[in-house]
Input
Amino acid sequence: MVDNNHSISFSLQKDYLPMWYMYGHYGNGIMLEFDRQKLFDKYNYRFLPCLYKDSTFFDDIISKFINFEYIDNFSALTQEEKVYMISLHTSLLISIIKNDYYQYENEVRIVGIGNKMGFDQEDKTEFFRVRNGEPIPYVKEYFSKDFLKSVWLGPSTQNKVLSKETIQSFLKSRGFDVDVVCSPIPFRS
Output
């Protein structure tokens, strides 16, 4: 059930210096802001906050998971249905557990992307990119244009006015009606 099981990561932190440094090319990148409600409406139970191992939230979820308190009439299921349900929920749980050192990211994930067994209706082609000399598998997932709320330019973007105008023009030419915002964070590189 975990074959071809990809996730998409987001942060609830907006315009946040540690995130620009870690994931935004030292402040030279861009940040895409998505409409959370639209993501939730599309992915529902697959749009989940990460569980950080030292939090009380983690302890609460684990205790419910182990006791299956959240599944109505679990005992009434057939053995095959129970195995499937446990496998499916284990796959979800494993996909959102994260090291507690990354709590500052305040991460949420869409899990089960490309997994036909329990989540998606079709298998998705797996592609590979290289990062630090290692192949990283991924699948393409597309959102409706109206899911995108804004595009943010990193705090160390050199020519913010020109970059903002260029990105606005590009987005408009592609049918996107979103704001382009420049981060006001004073960034030292």
